[in-house]
Amino acid sequence: MVGCLRSKSKRSKPSGFIFSGKKDMSAHIQLPFATSAEAPAARQVHLVAADDATTVSALLGDHAGFLTGQGFKPEDGAFTLIPSGESVGAALLCVSRDRSHDPMAFGLLGTKLLAGDWVPVLHGLEESARESAILGFCMGAYSYRVGERKAGKARMVVPDDAAKLVALAKANWLGRDLINMPANLLGPQDLANAASKALSHRGATTTVISGDELMASYPCLAQVGEGSERKPAVVVARWKAREGAPRVSLIGKGVCFDTGGYDLKPPAGMLRMKKDMGGAALMLALMCAAIDARLDVDLELRLGCVENSVSGHAMRPGDVLQTRSGLTVEIGNTDAEGRLVLCDLITEAAETKPDYILDAATLTGAARVALGPDLPALFTNDDQWGSVFLESGKKTADALWRMPLWHGYDAWLDSKVADLGNITSRPMAGAITAALYLQRFVPEGQKWAHLDTYAWNDATSPGRPEGGETLGLRGLFEMLTALNKNT
């Protein structure tokens, strides 16, 4: 059989692609918002307590009988357009009072409202429901497509004092864009550049580390990326709010694609692995939102941007890797690479002695088996801080679930040839043992939390289009807001 030689060529990116690596992605995000001055003829979308049938009937007016005959009932999630002559004059959405703080209760507005400008009008709901409705509309209106984003036709009028709302909405879209981006278009250096541009644009000081400097500073992380032609990079960014503000160090796992390495994933398990940088996208989105909203907290960010591939240079099962901390790690499975990326970053973050360290990663399938796709697992060594996380998640309808750092499983990480292994030999408690691995790199007395997230919507639901998702963003933002009250 006669073979043919295939010349090597660099991968190219589609022309007109939304991200070239040389601009701030977030600066080009156009949210479907308008000010009252920009939308003087905005139609009203009535947001009504679902148990207030009298108000619903009054708003529907002469059309109440017809719409009821068409199956409309005043219950949670019920939506209808209200005719005016031969066109649509308004819209109505019923929402349960106990869900009015949840943007997802309003998420279907993003796909149901017709083209044009809309202003929310509350009936029987607390004033805070206005922001929830606007954010839910924006999250529901999001779409992703390689190339130019298809602009939505409906816009929502936002209040003049909506800095926090706009910050969260833009951060959500930025995080989703990064997670949704195909891996051939977002390699480690691309992700590092995207983060650097977004944060520099906001006034943060940023550094992108690669090459020999990366190998010297983050030896364990560097080995994860050695198997790929697209070499690893680390982003370090700092933003200072004021002297004496709480200092929080954020860390994100940025594995731009995860083949599993020599412990290769099956095809079905590899299909969505462009999302394995979801922790980095979440932490970047959180820092961008905090800066845009001018939260009173000093922030550092470290993103480990790598690709876990197979080659003659890739790490192998049985290898022993050096870490920044000095601990050695035996590789029991090359598909447990996320913790190898994070451990060097945690070590460096702790060297700066922040008040808090928070890392986020799409780390284990075990967390998803335990909690499903929508509920990130929270581990922390500080009960008071853990309570702040949980209360913040409850307040924003963006829940986390605290899991135990059960030290009875610590010995499962023991290795005969190194200080510890990157996996255990037992097919149980995978999320807990992964967190215990990370805790080995946290100094005594350092407050630390770890978020094991999914970063993806498996199917479209109101406010949550199928694809990348910044699970926990609203809750984490509220946690940062609350820190000054708890320090």
Structure commentary:
- It comes from Gluconobacter morbifer G707.
- This is Leucine aminopeptidase.
- The structure is a single chain.
- The chain has 487 residues and is an alpha/beta fold.
- It has two domains: 33-155, Leucine Aminopeptidase, subunit E, domain 1 (3-Layer(aba) Sandwich); 167-483, Aminopeptidase, CATH 3.40.630.
- Helices cover 31% and strands 21% of the residues.
- It is built from 15 helices and 19 strands.
- The chain has an eight-stranded mixed sheet with strand order 7-8-10-9-13-17-14-15, with helices on both faces. A six-stranded mixed sheet has the order 1-6-5-2-4-3, sandwiched between helices.
- Helix 7 packs across helix 8 (219-225) and helix 8 runs antiparallel to helix 11.
- Mean pLDDT is 94; it is low at 1-9 and 14-18.
Provide a compact summary of the structure:
With 487 residues, the chain is an alpha/beta fold. The protein has helices at residues 53-60, 64-69, 109-112, 128-141, 163-180, 188-200, 211-217, 219-225, 267-270, 278-292, 338-351, 365-371, 383-395, 430-439, 473-482; strands at residues 33-34, 43-49, 79-84, 87-95, 116-123, 154-157, 205-209, 233-239, 247-258, 298-308, 320-322, 328-330, 356-361, 377-380, 401-402, 420-421, 447-452, 456-457, 467-468.
